[in-house]
Description:
The chain has 173 residues and is of the alpha+beta class. 39% of the residues lie in helices and 10% in strands.
Amino acid sequence: MEGKINWIILVLPRVPFLDFLYELHPEISCIFSLIFWVMLLMQIEKFMFYIWKRDIYRNRLSMEEEKFTERCIRDIGKHLEETALSKLPDNYQSVLKQSIISEEDDMVPEPQLDSFVVAKCERATRPLYLDGSKQSSGFDSREDHFQMVPDDLCILRYRPFQEELMSGNISLV
């Protein structure tokens, strides 16, 4: 297959990596940046209702991302109402709930927060427990804790360490 180029693209969502790569190959850096932003927007689109109903996540969006999320919610709601929901009985015309008697938004996909992530320590952390619990007293004899120092890399479950990630003490790699 002469003239055909096969690309293997590894998406690394670390902007400093892209800055370093830009010095070497500006074109490839632009491709990585584009892929990063497309993947970010795809994640926002996939979990838009989940993000929108939780202030902790919605407040982390940039102005442009917030506008994108609002527009996606409006557009998908309008599309579903015009194509399917208007043809269903009154009890089933919600984008967020299976029926009018549902108490929670049970049609909202939630991200899998129990998956493992690779994290890098940015600032020294308090003792972290593998089960995500906090230290209850000044001295704890439990053996299942560790403390991260700057530049440590670890593989952690996301949910137990979500607070440390949100505070900026740990960042995702």
